[in-house]
């Protein structure tokens, strides 16, 4: 008998005849007070800041300039950006000395380069979760998995319209269960560890710095 | 790479190792500090008692539901993963699981593996097995890396190097990583670890990881971490192999939502960890990175034994948060290594008898005061003390007795002498006459109370009966019956 | 632990004295009787009682525990509350006897019915008798409180102990660090794993001594004997007093 058949038959032999009712997760989270966008922006900002991220609330018109300024101030020389309209706008706002390219090729062709020469990655979060200060990335053809992971500085743009109050609301509202990307990543701050004597240190294996730009109507122009 | 590989220690010398740990002041300080820290952090996360208790109810119901439907869910998981392009393997025991991983490596002409944190791989001693077959395995979780450099095993399921202090790590890095000066600056130490491991991520042929939750509905592996090494291990190498105990499947994606909240808050007192990494497929066409192959190994290795018994099945509700060990007075005193098992602490005491047999588990089910601190904090409400009492009964049962759901190693602690003691005891206490005689003897002969009383007087003065028993005193005053 | 409904004040109660009190601290049992009688109750003490069976139960000998438990059950035939001056024994009778006899058609229902009327002494005083201790001695005293872990978790004994002490004039309860941590007794655990048990109780003694109180009050004789004898072994001036005895002590002067 295959291991599969043997394992399943052992389990079937003693599985209870009837399962309890399906737990009502939606019911548990139902009826929480609704929040306004301004509250969600503020909560997202506060939670991310508490997790050691730099957060900037900016206007739709001004975000590219603000990001460019930050990259310049950080001394970034080489940036890789997510392909798409926001990345293009950013590229236009950058000083010529700052080299900004798209991911472009399969990782296998330039692994060492990404690991060793790229200073920063720029991505646009698909949505965010205010309660925990979380940015959601749906990885796919236009969102490489390593872009938010390998470069030491990660810059993320998030539209204030796309902020959910909680993880449950995000999963539900975005219908993730029906359309899972190959890799869905939620990130809530720069990479960290407390593995040495419970002492918190940043930049364990992922980015040591996370800069978040929340674009909204009320945001400051750069 | 480990110079003195730590032997997998059978639990036979548990007492010996426990004594060693109790005598090690530095070790006790490390654990005490860590326990206090983790307890306080968890407490802060659950300041609303009502919210905490209702969330625990929900978490427990979700895990119970998944276990009740386990065979169905595993089949659903398999079919969804397969549809998504993830290859599923089934392993009844450690040997099979190891062979599966080796085979995947060989078929890919792989030599080097980078590992994210995986307790299941510790359980099957994968590193050891692969090293014997000429493969290089590097642990990349900072704690696991430290433990591997030291040639040790994790002493905690969430914080593997919890037994080490800064100075230990400083020395270890200085001795093992080229061009590393001694420093106790934790930021510098972490940067040293980061630099040392970077190359391994790039060069590895295979990345291995554990799994926190597998979602049957969508065919998704949900991984939780802070460092990013888990994401690197599952993203950069061309092949990703995940390994998980078969009980970790849940029915619906939404079921993970309360479970992750319970997990991170109970484990490290974080509202959320830095990364939730939800893997549902290998690199799809048009994608520029991600592994080209993803495999999942489903591991039984004794879990089906726990599953077979209605009471013991609740062991499999565990979501491996480690809160039970963080709050355990025994774990806090002796640390993780004394247990000699992959999973230490209260969860180890109730799980190891199924993975290893009651004989190998030896003293573990008995090494508890049954204080209940563990079940009080367990996010999925596993009644750990009740399970310990049950396992004690099974360990003491006559090995030849036939029972409905026999456990491996039944009767390992069966002792004719002890049976006699309890028979004498129950004889004395069930018969009013015998108990009366015993009381009479104990109170009248109290002058002869021995000065040494088994283990009691090692740390305490002897117990001496009173000169008159309560029975006598109440009889004297004609207390009605 | 489930919230429970308390009966109105009865005329009669049973006392289940527990084996440890019986042999080692009988005065605590006498004091319990006194406190109950003070509220006008008739206290019945079936002379054939012995032990709740906990030592065998927690050691993994369910059969031996059942034998002993069965012998006790029939002694409490009237529908009166059964008062137990020990939280962990009360917990055994209330929480574990029903489980122990779950598959027993004869004793199962009996165990479940009896469990309903088992009360730990301070719980019964606080919730049912509500004694008036306002005339007790008033000179200030500081004490620490220790609650057995199973008693706290199964019976809520810590809360009851605190409110009982709060009803005594002049008594200040000092919190010690890690008050909620186990004292390391664990019944036969203390004999089976003396080193670990010894390390745990050592910390408990230090924690109580650290408050500056030389005295701790507890509703559990197992923990009390464990902590007191461990302190004595190291010549640390910390000693336990049973809750019933402490309350009586504060009531001296009152006619018994
Ligand atoms: S038994 Fe409960 S507390 Fe312990 S690791 Fe598992 S889930 Fe966490």
Task: Write a structural description.
The complex is a heterotrimer of chains A (222), B (481) and C (256). Chain A has 7 helices and 12 strands. With 222 residues, chain A is α/β, with parallel strands linked by helices. Chain A has one domain (41-192, 199-221): Rossmann fold, CATH 3.40.50.10420. In chain A, helix 4 (63-73) packs across helix 5 (85-93). Chain A starts with a helix and ends in a 7-residue tail after the last strand. By secondary structure, chain B is α/β, with parallel strands linked by helices. Chain B is 50% helix and 10% strand. A 6-stranded parallel sheet of chain B has the order 1-10-7-4-2-3, sandwiched between helices. Chain B has a 4-stranded mixed sheet with strand order 8-5-6-9. Chain C is α/β, with parallel strands linked by helices and 256 residues long. Chain C is built from 13 helices and 8 strands. The longest helix of chain C has 16 residues, at 194-209. The model of chain C has no long low-confidence stretch (mean pLDDT 93). In chain C, strand 7, helix 12 and strand 8 (239-242) form a beta-alpha-beta unit. Chain C has a 4-stranded parallel sheet with strand order 2-1-3-4, with helices on both faces. A 4-stranded parallel sheet of chain C has the order 6-5-7-8, sandwiched between helices. The chains are: A alpha/beta (222), B alpha/beta (481), C alpha/beta (256). Chains in contact: A-B, B-C. The interface between A and B is large, with 79 and 97 residues. Bound molecules: iron/sulfur cluster (SF4).
Topology:
The complex is a heterotrimer of chains A (about 220), B (about 475) and C (about 260).
Chain A: H1 3-14, H2 25-29, H3 37-50, E1 54-58, H4 63-73, E2 78-81, H5 85-93, E3 99-102, H6 111-117, E4 120-124, E5 127-129, E6 134-139, E7 153-159, E8 163-164, H7 167-173, E9 183-187, E10 192-193, E11 201-202, E12 209-215
Parallel strand pairs in A: 1-12, 2-3, 2-4, 4-7, 5-8, 7-12
Antiparallel strand pairs in A: 5-6, 6-9, 10-11
Chain B: H1 14-23, H2 25-45, H3 49-68, H4 70-84, E1 86-91, H5 94-107, E2 112-115, H6 119-123, H7 126-132, E3 136-139, H8 142-149, H9 166-176, H10 186-203, E4 206-209, E5 213-215, E6 220-225, H11 229-235, E7 239-245, E8 249-250, H12 253-268, E9 275-279, E10 293-299, H13 303-308, H14 323-326, H15 329-334, H16 345-356, H17 358-361, H18 373-377, H19 384-396, H20 416-430, H21 432-444, H22 456-459, H23 470-476
Parallel strand pairs in B: 1-10, 2-3, 2-4, 4-7, 5-8, 7-10
Antiparallel strand pairs in B: 5-6, 6-9
Helix pairs in contact in B: 2-12, 3-12, 9-10, 16-19, 20-21
Chain C: E1 12-15, H1 19-23, H2 26-38, E2 42-44, H3 54-59, H4 62-73, E3 82-84, H5 87-100, H6 107-116, E4 118-120, H7 121-129, E5 141-146, H8 149-155, H9 157-166, E6 171-174, H10 189-192, H11 194-209, E7 215-218, H12 221-233, E8 239-242, H13 243-251
Parallel strand pairs in C: 1-2, 1-3, 3-4, 5-6, 5-7, 7-8
The structure holds iron/sulfur cluster (SF4).
């Amino acid at each position: 008998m295959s291991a599969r058949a043997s394992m399943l038959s052992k389990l079937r032999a003693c599985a209870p005849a009837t399962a309890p009712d399906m737990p009502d997760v939606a019911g548990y989270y139902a009826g929480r007070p609704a929040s306004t966008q301004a509250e969600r922006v503020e909560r997202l900002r506060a939670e991310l800041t508490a997790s050691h991220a730099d957060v900037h609330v900016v206007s739709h018109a001004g975000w590219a300039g603000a990001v460019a300024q930050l990259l310049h101030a950080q001394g970034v020389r080489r940036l890789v950006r997510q392909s798409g309209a926001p990345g293009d706008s950013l590229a236009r706002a950058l000083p010529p000395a700052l080299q900004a390219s798209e991911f472009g090729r399969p990782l296998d062709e330039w692994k060492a380069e990404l690991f060793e020469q790229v200073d920063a990655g720029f991505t646009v979060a698909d949505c965010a979760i205010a309660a925990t200060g979380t940015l959601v990335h749906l990885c796919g053809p236009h969102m490489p998995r390593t872009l938010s992971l390998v470069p030491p500085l990660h810059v993320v743009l998030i539209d204030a319209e796309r902020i959910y109050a909680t993880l449950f609301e995000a999963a539900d509202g975005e219908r993730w269960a029906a359309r899972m990307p190959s890799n869905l990543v939620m990130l809530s701050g720069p990479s960290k560890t407390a593995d040495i004597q419970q002492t918190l240190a940043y930049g364990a294996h992922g980015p040591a710095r996370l800069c978040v730009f929340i674009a909204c109507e009320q945001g400051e122009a750069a | 790479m480990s110079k003195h590989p730590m032997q997998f220690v059978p639990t036979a010398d548990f007492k010996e190792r426990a004594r060693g740990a109790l005598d090690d002041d530095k070790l006790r300080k490390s654990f005490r500090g860590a326990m206090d820290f983790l307890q306080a952090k968890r407490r802060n996360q659950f300041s609303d008692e009502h919210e905490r208790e209702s969330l625990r109810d929900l978490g427990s119901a979700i895990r119970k539901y998944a276990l009740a439907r386990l065979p169905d869910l595993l089949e659903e998981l398999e079919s969804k993963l397969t549809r998504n392009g993830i290859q599923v393997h089934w392993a009844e025991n450690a040997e099979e699981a190891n062979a599966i991983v080796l085979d995947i490596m060989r078929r890919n002409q792989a030599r080097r593996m980078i590992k994210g944190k995986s307790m299941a791989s510790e359980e099957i001693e994968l590193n050891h097995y692969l090293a014997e077959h000429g493969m290089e395995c590097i642990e990349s979780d900072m704690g696991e890396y430290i433990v591997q450099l030291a040639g040790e095993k994790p002493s905690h399921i969430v914080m593997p190097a919890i037994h080490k202090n800064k100075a230990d790590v400083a020395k270890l890095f200085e001795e093992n990583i080229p061009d590393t000066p001694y420093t106790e600056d934790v930021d510098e130490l972490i940067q040293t670890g980061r630099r040392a491991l970077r190359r391994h991520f790039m060069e590895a042929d295979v990345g291995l990881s554990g799994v926190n939750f597998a979602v049957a509905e969508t065919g998704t592996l949900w991984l939780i971490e802070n460092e990013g090494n888990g994401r690197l291990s599952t993203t950069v190498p061309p092949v990703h192999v995940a390994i998980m105990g078969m009980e970790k499947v849940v029915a619906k994606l939404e079921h993970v939502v309360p479970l992750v909240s319970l997990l991170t808050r109970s484990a490290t007192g974080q509202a959320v960890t830095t990364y939730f990494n939800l893997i549902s497929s290998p690199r799809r066409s048009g994608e520029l990175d991600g592994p080209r192959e993803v495999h999942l190994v489903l591991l039984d290795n004794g879990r089906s034994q726990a599953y077979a018994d209605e009471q013991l099945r609740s062991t499999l509700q565990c979501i491996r948060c480690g809160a039970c060990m963080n709050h355990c007075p025994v774990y806090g005193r002796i640390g993780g290594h004394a247990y000699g098992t992959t999973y230490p602490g209260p969860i180890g005491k109730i799980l190891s008898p199924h993975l290893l047999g009651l004989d190998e588990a030896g003293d573990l089910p008995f090494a508890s005061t049954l204080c209940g601190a563990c079940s009080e904090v367990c996010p999925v409400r596993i009644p750990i003390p009740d399970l310990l009492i049950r396992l004690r009964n099974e360990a003491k049962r006559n090995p030849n007795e036939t029972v409905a759901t026999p456990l491996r190693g039944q009767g390992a602690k069966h002792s004719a002498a002890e049976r006699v003691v309890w028979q004498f005891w129950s004889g004395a206490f069930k018969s009013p006459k015998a108990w009366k005689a015993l009381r009479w003897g104990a109170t009248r002969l109290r002058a002869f109370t021995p000065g040494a009383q088994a283990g009691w007087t090692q740390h305490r003065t002897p117990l001496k009966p009173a000169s008159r028993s309560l029975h006598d005193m109440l009889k004297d005053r004609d207390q009605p019956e | 632990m489930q919230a429970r409904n308390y009966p109105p004040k009865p005329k009669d109660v049973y006392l289940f004295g527990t084996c440890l009190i019986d042999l080692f601290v009988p005065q605590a049992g006498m004091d319990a009787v006194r406190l109950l009688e003070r509220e006008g109750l008739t206290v019945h003490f079936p002379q054939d009682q012995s032990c709740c069976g906990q030592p065998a139960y927690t050691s993994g000998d369910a059969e031996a525990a059942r034998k002993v438990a069965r012998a006790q059950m029939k002694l409490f035939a009237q529908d009166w509350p059964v008062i137990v001056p020990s939280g962990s024994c009360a917990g055994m009778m209330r929480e574990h006897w029903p489980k122990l006899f779950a598959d027993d058609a004869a004793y199962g229902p009996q165990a479940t019915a009896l469990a309903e009327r088992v009360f730990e002494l301070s719980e019964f005083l606080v919730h049912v008798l509500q004694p008036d201790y306002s005339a007790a001695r008033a000179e200030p005293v500081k004490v620490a409180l220790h609650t057995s872990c199973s008693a706290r978790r199964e019976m809520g004994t810590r809360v009851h102990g605190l409110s009982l002490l709060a009803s005594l004039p002049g008594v200040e309860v000092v919190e010690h660090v890690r008050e909620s941590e186990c004292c390391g007794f664990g019944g036969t655990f203390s004999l089976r794993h003396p080193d670990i048990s010894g390390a745990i109780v050592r910390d408990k003694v230090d924690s109580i001594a650290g408050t500056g109180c030389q005295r701790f009050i507890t509703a559990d004789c197992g923990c009390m004997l464990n902590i007191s004898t461990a302190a004595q072994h190291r010549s640390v001036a910390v000693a336990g007093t049973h809750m019933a005895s402490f309350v009586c002590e504060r009531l001296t002067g009152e006619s018994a």
